[in-house]
Task: structure prediction
Amino acid sequence: QVQLVESGGGLVQPGGSLRLSCAASGNIFRINAMGWYRQAPGKQRELVATITSGGTTNYADSVKGRFTISRDAAKNTVYLQMNSLKSEDTAVYYCNARGRLNISPLEYWGRGTQVTVSS
Result:
């Protein structure tokens, strides 16, 4: 059992920055990768960025060069630094964690945090 709690969302003007945090608790030894997804009104949830336990990162093309995902293993926390924000970045951002229980894959989700980019 893993619990994910997001924080850091809010209202920001275009061109501004926000940093999202996701703190993991529970059986975190099961986690081998974490990431951020987002869902805008009327659209499907999409991948934003992921990071593995080894530090390998992956980004959606729409956020490359603007967003940075990072981790703090000591705090069991993953971050998403969002710079040069655009109105199209407006969405609910969800923290995701993937792992395994023996041979069975596991996936966990946070409840989401709202990011609104507007002037």
Q: What stands out?
A: The longest strand covers residues 91-101. The chain has a mean pLDDT of 95.
